[in-house]
Design brief:
It is a single chain. The protein starts with a helix and ends in a 7-residue tail after the last strand. Strands 1, 2, 3, 4, 5, 6, 7, 8, 9 and 10 form a ten-stranded antiparallel beta sheet that branches. Helix content is about 35%, strand content about 20%. It is of the alpha+beta class and about 300 residues long.
Length: about 300
Amino acid sequence: MALVSADSRIAELLTELHQLIKQTQEERSRSEHNLVNIQKTHERMQTENKISPYYRTKLRGLYTTAKADAEAECNILRKALDKIAEIKSLLEERRIAAKIAGLYNDSEPPRKTMRRGVLMTLLQQSAMTLPLWIGKPGDKPPPLCGAIPASGDYVARPGDKVAARVKAVDGDEQWILAEVVSYSHATNKYCAPGCIQPFPPFVCRYEVDDIDEEGKERHTLSRRRVIPLPQWKANPETDPEALFQKEQLVLALYPQTTCFYRALIHAPPQRPQDDYSVLFEDTSYADGYSPPLNVAQRYVVACKEPKKK
């Protein structure tokens, strides 16, 4: 029933989105006439080689109208972005519900593993479609935008992608790309047998699935072993403070793998569509770092471990 309800709501949102796109085009067409008048007025001023009070008054009115037109179009676009975000959220909820219920359609037969090439393509698509944070004038980027960490009380939702620190088969620990399954509070955990003082009072645990072994490997981890991934890309042109800076230590997803490794920022993105350029720690190189490699904002998070000397 929940899946049917989600499908119905998605259909409604798509219809509303289509109407907003039409409104955007209508608003843009309406404003073009005013922009042409501004251009022609400037051309007349250049021909006459003077700026008369008449032209000043006319241009002031034209620019005021253009500003109002731009704000109206911007408001419509923000509404459209909200609809897209809601559609993506519903699609994710539907995917999780189907996974929990063990339901698959004909185009998605049940499978325990996914071909590496398909998985890498999906990860790349996830990075490319990560929404860009576009705030109103004066707004500051929120938590989980670019390099801004989650708030202290943040709890990742089922389906969210995270960097998770787990024990490998050989006993070593590594950071992997994982998907949150659940989150729970366990109370009355004690520091040692016979101790009468709870320590800590709340032990919070995540259950996560290794993204590279869906349905095969599940880990139960404390909060400190889970780092939520960014939910928005930061715009370098408007919010450079929301990006990791040059030589900052991070955990970055090594290209064509599902593991995070320590790296230094070689260069932050210069444009919204750009990736980070990072130097991975690698003892096989004389200086201890790999050549620069590109990693999307989606897969770069803060590293809390000290920098190796």
